[in-house]
Amino acid sequence: MPNASARPKNGRRSRRRRREDPARNELVSSSLESAQQCLFNQDYGTAFVHYLLVLNLAPMFKDFAKDSFRFTLFKWTEELDSVGRIQDLFDCYEQALELFPADEVILNSMGEHLFRMGFRDEAAGHFHKALKLRPDYPEARENFYRVANWLVERWHFLMLNDHGRNRKYQQAIQKAVQSGCNTVLDIGTGTGILGMCAKKAGAAEVYACELSKTMYELACEVLAANGMDGSIKILHMKSLEMEVPKDIPHKVSLVVTETVDAGLFGEGIIESLIHAWHHLLLPPQQTGVPARRPINSATGRVIPAGATVFGMAVESAEIRRHHRLCVSEVGSLSMSAAGELHSPVSCSSEPDDSMEPYTTERLSRLPGGYKSLTEPFTALDIDFNNVQELEGLSSREVRRIHLPVTQEGELDALAVWFQLHLDEESSLSTGPQEDTCWEQAIYPVHTFFLKPRDELIVEVSCRDAYLRLCSVAVLRDGREIRLDKRLDSQHCENPVSNPNPEAELCSALACLKTDQNQTKDYSMLECSEMALLNNHDYHKSFCSALTKLISQLKVKWQNQERRSGDQLDCSDLFYVLDVSEGFSLLSLIAASRGHVKAYSSVEKKKQQEVLKRLARSNNIPEDHLEFWLNHVEDEQGMLQRPSREKLWSAIILDCVETCGLIRQKLMEKASLARCLLEEGGSIFPAKIVVHGMLVESDTLLLESAVQGQEPTLGFNIAPFINQFTVPVHVFLDFSTLECRHLSESAELFVLDLMNATANYTDREVKVRATSGGRITAIPFWYHIYLDQDISVSTFSQNSHWKQAAVVLQQPLEVQAGDWVCLTVKLHKSTISMTSQRQKELGEK
Ligand code: 44T
C-alpha cells in the first residue's frame, strides 16, 4: 500500500509541473488502465492501489473515477473484513477520505464498519457528518437514527425537561456561588447546563469537562450560542485525568456534578470525587471548627453534598421472567437438563466481570406492576464532602440488615433508589412513588416465597465502586434459610446455630459438591434470551407450525415416491436451519419432530453445550443437531444450502429485534432464504403484519426531545440537543405507557416474506380517531405469521419483545370520528410513518 503521508501537497505549482511531466502522465494513464483491468478481473486490492496512485498524482481524474474508486474501495474492504484485516481496512478508508473528504457515501460506509467493530461514537460521528453533507441521504439517516440513542442518551431529554430538577440545581449553585464559591468545575457537563448556571450566578471562573466526544462538541455549540464560549473553559477529558495547573490554573472552590445513574455510583462519582478532592478542589471546610473567615473563601465543596440510598424487596413477574428460567418445558422439550441458566445481572456473592450488579426499571411502569414485600430501608448514607468517607466506602464492612416482611409474595428483586442532597436544604429523589422520571436500580435475587412473619436478611457492600445488595437469608421460625444459590440445596438449610460442628462440615462439603456441578453446567443468557425461553406461546406456535409443515412435506414425499415407485428411504431427513440471533431452542424443537436434521446458529460454546445436553435428555439423536456456524466460514455465507444436493425444508429467520424494530437486512435475508428452500418448504415467519395505534402521550414526547419554546433555565439548549432526536422510540412498554388511546389498533403494513414478487411501495392507511385529542405518537408492533394460521404477537403479555413508536414531529389535533391518513414507508427493513388529518373523508 503506498504511504499516503509521503505524498506531496498538491499546490498550484506542483500541479502545473505534474501536467507537464510526460513520465508522470505516462504513469497515470498506465495505472488508470491497470486499475480498470484489475477491477474487471475482480482483483480489488491491486485495483485500489492503482486508483490511489492515479488520483493522488492526477486529482483532475477524481470526478471521472469517483464511482469506480468507491466501488473498488467497498469491494476491497469487504474482502479485508472477511479475513479480519481490520487495520488495513481502516487505512484504506482513511486514504479514501483524504482524497474525498466530503464524500458522504464513503463516510457512511466507514461508519458502518466502525459500528460493526463496536466503535459507536466514531461510527456515529461519520453518520452525522455524512448526513450534514447530504441531509436527504436515507442510508446515513437510518444509520444515524440507530446510533443517536447511544451517542446522546435519552435521559438528556428527560433531564432537561425536568423543570423541578433544573431549578433545584440552579438554586443550589446560585446559593453556593453567592456564598463565596467563586471558582467552579462542572464534572460531566453534558450540555453545559450546570456550568452555565454557575457563570450566570456570578462565578469568576468556570471550568467544565466532558468525556464523551459527541457531548463535548455539543456543549461547545451550546456555550457559543449562549455567549459563554469565552467565559467557560471546557475540556474534552475525564475529570480523573485533569491536573492543576495543566488543565485548570488552580484548585476550585466548587465542584458541581450530576454523574449519577439509577444505582447512584454507576457513572463513577465516587472515584471522580476522591480524585477531585485530592487534585482539583480546595480543602474542605473543617467540620466542627467555626468559620472565622467568610465561609468557603479558601475551601472547597461539592454539589450534591451527599446522598441517601434506599432499598426495598419486591415481587415482580416481569423482573423474574427476564432473569430466571420459570418454565420446566419449552415447546415440548423438557428443560430439566439445561443446567443453571443465569442472566448477566446477578447478586452472586462472587460476581465475575461479565456480570452487572443491577439493571434498571421504572417500577411504576413495570408491566404487571410490582408488590412491595418490605418497607423501604436505608441502605447507605454518603457525604460527598468527606473524602475519608468516600475512600473508606470500598473497605466498609459488609452491612447486614434485617427486614421484617410486610406482605407475602415471591422475592424477585431488591429495588434501589436515592435522595441526592444538593445542599442542606434541597434534595432530589429518584423514588418509585415520586413524580420523577428516573429509573430505579434493580438487583434481581434468588427467588424465594416470603411469608409475613419472615425476616429477610440483606447484605449491603461497596465493591469496585458499585453498591452491591444481596439477599442472603430468611429468618423463619428461628431458622436461618440461606438464599445464596450456591448454598441453595436441601443440605444447606441450616438452623441458626448448628450445635453439631461435624454436621456443619458435612453440609459445607455437600454445598461444595453442588457448587462444582453448578460451575460445570452454568451458562449465561441475556435478559431478553431468558424472557424468550419463558415465552411459552412463541415456542408452542413454532412447535405447531413445524409439525404441520413436516407432515405436509412427508405427504408430498410419499406421493412422489408412490409416483416414481421408489422406496421411502428412512435415512432421508428434512433439513431445518434456525438463523435466530443469540440463544434459540427452535432448532432443537425442530429436531424433536423426528426425521429432521436441524442446524442451530448458536455461537457460544457454553450455550451449544446446553443444547447438546437438552438433545440428549430429550432423546434427540446426537447427529440430528448441528451447529451451523461451525460449518460456514463467514457471516456472509450464513445462508447456504445444507449440502450440495440438498435444500432446506424450513429456514427460521429472527425477524424482530428485542427493541421492537424489524431486523436490518431482513428482506434481503428472506429473498436469499427463499432460493434455498425445497419445493413446499417454508420460511418462518412467512409474513409479518405491522399493527399500530394513534395515541396521545406526553411521556413519550418528554423522552424524545426537549419540549416547549421556553429556554431551559434561560439558556438556549433545546435546538442543539434536539438534533439528536430520533423519529422512532424503541424499547417501549406500550402496555404501561401513560397515554390516551385515540384509535383502535390498525393494520399498517404487510411484509410477505414468502412472496418474491411483493413490491413494497409506500402504503396509505386510513385510521379513524375514536376520541378527540392530540396524536403525539403511533406505537407499533408485529403479528408474526409462521404460516397462514399460526401467529405470535410482539405485543403480548409474555413477549420477550418490546414495542416501538413513531413520535410525530408535530402533534396532530383530531376529533372523534376524524380520519387520519398514515403514509407508511419501508426502506431497507426500516419502517417510517407520516400522518395527515383527512376530515373531508367523512365516515367512509
Ligand atoms: N443522571 C440522571 C444523568 N461523565 C446521568 O459522559 C439524576 C439518572 C439521573 N465526564 C437517577 C437520577 C439522576 N469526567 O455525558 C455524561 C458523561 C460524563 C464524565 C468527565 C467524568 N469523570 C465523567 C463521568 C461521567 O458526564 C455526563 C453525565 S453522566 C451521566 C448522568 C437525578 N438516574
UniProtKB/TrEMBL annotation:
Lineage summary: Eukaryota, Metazoa, Chordata, Craniata, Vertebrata
Alphabetical UniProt keywords: Cytoplasm, Methyltransferase, Repeat, S-adenosyl-L-methionine, TPR repeat, Transferase
Molecular function in Gene Ontology: histone methyltransferase activity; protein-arginine omega-N symmetric methyltransferase activity
Bias (Basic residues) ranges: 9-18
Stretches forming TPR repeats: 104-137
UniProt GO BP: methylation
Enzyme class: transferase
Organism: Sparus aurata (Gilthead sea bream)
Stretches the record annotates as Disordered: 1-28
Protein name (record): Protein arginine N-methyltransferase 9
A Pfam family annotated for this UniProt entry: PrmA
Annotated ranges, domain Protein arginine N-methyltransferase: 371-448, 738-832
Gene behind this protein: PRMT9
Major location category of this protein: cytoplasm
Cellular localization per UniProt: Cytoplasm
Catalyzed reactions: L-arginyl-[protein] + 2 S-adenosyl-L-methionine = N(omega),N(omega)'-dimethyl-L-arginyl-[protein] + 2 S-adenosyl-L-homocysteine + 2 H(+)
Coiled coil region boundaries: none
